[in-house]
Amino acid sequence: MRRNQVAVVGAAESTELGVIPNMSQLQLHADAALNAIADAGLKLSDIDGFATAVETPQQVCHYLGIKPTWVDGTSVGGCSFMLHVRHAAAAIEAGLCKTVLITHAESGKSMIGKAPRSIPADSLQGQFEAPFGVYGPPSMFPIPVLRFMKTYGVTHEQLASVAVVQREWAAKNPRAMMKDPITVADVLNSRMIAYPFRLLQCCLVTDGGGALILTSADRAKDFPRKPVYIKGTGESVETPMVSQMETFNSSRAFKVAGPLAFKEAGIAHRDVDHLMIYDAFAHLPLFGLGDLGFMPYEETGKFIADGNTRPGGKLPLNTNGGGLSYMHSGMYGMYALQESVRQMRGIAPAQVQNAKISVCHGVGGMFAASGTIVFTNER
Amino acid sequence: MAEPQRARPKPTPETQHFWDGTKAGELRLQRCDACAHVYFPPRPFCPSCASRKVSVFKASGKGFLYSYVINHRPAAPGFTPPYAIAVVELAEGPRMMSNIIDCPQTPEALELDMKLEVAFEKLDDKITLPVFRPAKG
């Protein structure tokens, strides 16, 4: 795909984040969509392309009253929205549509109008994983961690520091769920969830939504907000079964999607001013830093523990507080994208000064899928 | 009210040989007749070279502990926490999720790379699960 031909011209989260028992999941989609439409200064009738995950495009389009000529229902977990951005950019460039709305919403905490996740007994996961006691992401996502720690010499303290540093970012963000400072000792003394991970190393469970609007870069200059250009993109999938990953020392999906986006954007790692790595659990930033090629895996834990990703550090990472402290509805990718867009617009609560390139890396369905977007505010 | 039950696998035509094997006290894997690749989970073709000529064989049942979590909460129905959810690397190459028996469910007792051997846990007349215990000797 060609660089900087498509831009984000509308971006918004749901009016509230956190615990929203008075709104169904479908209405959260609409709330976020209407906020993004207002942000872009558009009308719903201007939208001719639509993408969403979990809920079907037909469900959300009908609810909103949108008549699209292009839809994408890619649903590969929490990074689905990174893939939607990539697909939408390609569709706009190909002339299939002009103005794409991407919505996410999840009543992850209140479970209003949300179907419970289940594993069919005759699926491969139902036959070869569920019988051994996996029960939700906390029992599955951290399964590779002990192997990763042994291979690369990563310590429990380093993995605890991920949560500590992200809480520092969250403290600067009025919309973050958790803002009180924590220490490595606090993390290591918090309630055990699935060894080696404790409560403060696991993501929040919240309600919320978010929406993005994309159009061609040529049209983007006529919109009220500063355009944020799509400079590079990547995507891949590996396996829905965490036990069947090629290795626990890295993520194949990360290693495909990340470098693809860097290559397409034509950037080097030193060019990255701002970085988001989807942190459903504390090990993901370490996998991301290694798999995206920022540094050898052996250095990832120390890099974070030494403060390089904290406010004022040389590589600002997860500057909204992340899934660990900002919010995590279940499919956090949309909120990572929103923070990258805010940083590129220059309006983030914890703004990285003069940031020109933001990399936003997502994961989906344990390590099943991945999507990476490189944003810039310079065409 | 009945006790909540552990999740029961429901075999499909492609996986039936595996579950017939565990019921007979065998851990069965598949090998490609064309390229010799050994793979899991079951399917009637080779995921490495796409050949449909594949054979089922009885695996050694030997392996080592590749990684695990010790799950505290929430516990799956039929499980009493804390319990380890392990991934075992088999001597033949493939990895599979399982549980570790005859071993304390603690970080001290569960050492990565420890040698394991298969055992079989009968759930009911249809399903027997492959589990692993520390290898003797």
Distance between the termini of chain B: 44 Å
Named CATH topology of chain A: Peroxisomal Thiolase, Chain A, domain 1
State the secondary-structure class of chain A. Answer: alpha/beta
Unreliable residue stretches of chain B? none
Shape of chain A: globular
In CATH terms, what is the fold-level topology of chain B?
A: OB fold (Dihydrolipoamide Acetyltransferase, E2P)
Extended strand count of chain A: 11
Cα gyration radius of chain B (Å): 16 Å
CATH architecture designation of chain A: 3-Layer(aba) Sandwich
Output the structural class of chain B: mainly beta
Oligomer: heterodimer
Please outline the major beta sheet of chain A: 9 strands, mixed
Across the major sheet of chain A, the strand order is 3-2-4-7-1-8-11-10-9
Which pair of chains has the greatest number of interface residues, and how are they split between the two chains? A-B, 38 and 40 residues
Query: How many strands of chain B?
Result: 8
Instruction: Indicate the CATH class of chain B.
Output: Mainly Beta
Architecture overview:
The complex is a heterodimer of chains A (379) and B (137). Chain A contains 14 helices and eleven strands. By secondary structure, chain A is of the alpha/beta class. Chain A has one domain: Thiolase/Chalcone synthase (Peroxisomal Thiolase, Chain A, domain 1, 3-Layer(aba) Sandwich). In chain A, β5 and β6 form a beta hairpin. The longest helix of chain A is centred in the N-terminal third of the chain and has 16 residues, at 25-40. Chain A is globular and about 55 Å long. Chain A starts with 5 loop residues before the first strand and ends with a strand. Chain B has 137 residues and is mainly beta. Chain B has one domain: OB fold (Dihydrolipoamide Acetyltransferase, E2P). In chain B, 6% of the residues lie in helices and 36% in strands. A five-stranded antiparallel beta sheet of chain B has the order 6-5-4-7-8. In chain B, strands 2-1-3 form a three-stranded antiparallel beta sheet. In chain B, a hairpin with a 4-residue loop joins β5 and β6. Chain B starts with 15 loop residues before the first helix and ends with a strand. The mean pLDDT of chain B is 96. At the A-B interface, α4, α5, α6 and β5 of A face β4, β5 and β6 of B. β5 (192-195) of chain A pairs antiparallel with β4 of chain B. Chain B: Residues 59-121 form the ChsH2 C-terminal OB-fold domain.
